């Protein structure tokens, strides 16, 4: 969102945007919704501390501080997602629901497919482009991102007692297809103001190609995330990875799997060398 609009709003500006647009997309760290959690995160990240209890506490504390009464949590499940299997995801789901209930926060959790990245881009500019393509109905919009957005939005709309019998998904389709979703996003962007600097896609780029014929059998999400970070994302807004092939796609030797973008030569060289060493794709031989 920082590519599209200003996100470092204070509480007063947040209230103004919400009063005008019925929503906002801002960086919670700037308004210090949960100062103790900010301190904990600053310690946990450098030390690589990551467990379910700390994650749940971090997420719920900020939602409660913001005054939320209903919360939808999306948990992607896959071998290279944060939750590796359904049993692990169900334990996390029950923890969210238990604590949400004790805190008076209606919490619903959906488990989604995390076997591969959603959308075509990894990195701020590329992800923002995916989002705006979906909202504008662009034929180039990634269909998997569109479908996941509709299902998540539909679930939230089902909170409304007026929409009975799971009608939220259909209502989400109407809002997207009719242009209302895009119009609301544009109102939020206008109300929050322009970003501090214009971000463009990195000028240093290279394709990572398949070294064999075959069908994409698996994609290592964590590896692609790591490669995008080596390229400079998310600090460098124009850095990242543009994905050309997903699971089930047939690929010929020499065809592109994805494209790396970077702004700084040393980050580009790091990411390119790492991707050529291990590109994160697994193949089944072409039948």
Which CATH class of the largest domain is shown?
A: Mainly Alpha
> How would you sum up the major sheet?
4 strands, antiparallel
Q: How many β-strands, per DSSP?
A: 9
- What class would the helix/strand composition place it in? alpha+beta
Q: In one word, what is the shape?
A: globular
Strand residue percentage? 15-25%
What's the Cα radius of gyration? Answer: 20 Å
Listing every helix as H and every strand as E from the N terminus to the C terminus, the arrangement reads HHHEHEEHHHHEEHEEEHE
Q: What is the CATH-assigned architecture of the largest domain? A: Up-down Bundle
Stretches where pLDDT is under 50 for at least 5 consecutive residues are: none
Widest sheet: strand ordering: 3-6-8-4
Number of domains: 3
Mean pLDDT reading: 91
Helical element count?
A: 10
What name is given to the CATH topology of the largest domain? Answer: Transferase, Pyrimidine Nucleoside Phosphorylase, Chain A, domain 3
The share of residues in helices is 40-55%
The span between the termini is 42 Å
């Amino acid at each position: 969102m920082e590519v599209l609009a200003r996100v470092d709003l204070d509480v007063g500006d947040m209230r103004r945007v919400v009063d005008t647009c019925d929503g906002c997309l801002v960086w919670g760290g700037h308004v210090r919704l949960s100062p103790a959690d900010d301190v904990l995160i600053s310690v946990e990240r450098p030390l690589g501390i990551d467990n379910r209890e700390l994650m749940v506490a971090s997420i719920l504390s900020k939602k409660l501080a913001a005054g939320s009464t209903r919360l939808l949590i999306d948990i992607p499940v896959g071998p290279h997602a944060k939750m590796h299997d359904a049993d692990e995801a169900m334990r996390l789901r029950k923890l969210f629901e238990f604590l949400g209930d004790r805190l008076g926060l209606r919490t619903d959790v959906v488990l989604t497919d995390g076997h591969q990245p959603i959308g075509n881009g990894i990195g701020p500019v590329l992800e923002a482009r995916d989002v705006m393509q979906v909202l504008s109905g662009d034929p180039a919009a990634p269909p998997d991102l569109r479908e996941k957005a509709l299902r998540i939005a539909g679930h939230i709309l089902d909170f409304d007692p007026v929409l009975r019998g799971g009608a939220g998904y259909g209502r989400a389709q109407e809002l997207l297809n009719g242009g209302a979703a895009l119009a609301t996003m544009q109102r939020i962007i206008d109300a929050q103001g322009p970003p501090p600097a214009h971000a463009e896609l990195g000028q240093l780029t290279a394709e990572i190609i398949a070294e064999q014929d075959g069908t994409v059998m698996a994609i290592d999400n964590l590896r692609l995330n790591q490669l995008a970070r080596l390229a400079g994302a998310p600090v460098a807004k124009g850095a990242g990875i543009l994905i050309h092939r997903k699971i089930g796609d047939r690929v010929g030797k020499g065809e592109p799997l994805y494209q790396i973008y970077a702004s700084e030569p040393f980050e580009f060289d790091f990411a390119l060398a790492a991707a050529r060493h291990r590109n994160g794709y697994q193949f089944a031989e072409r039948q």
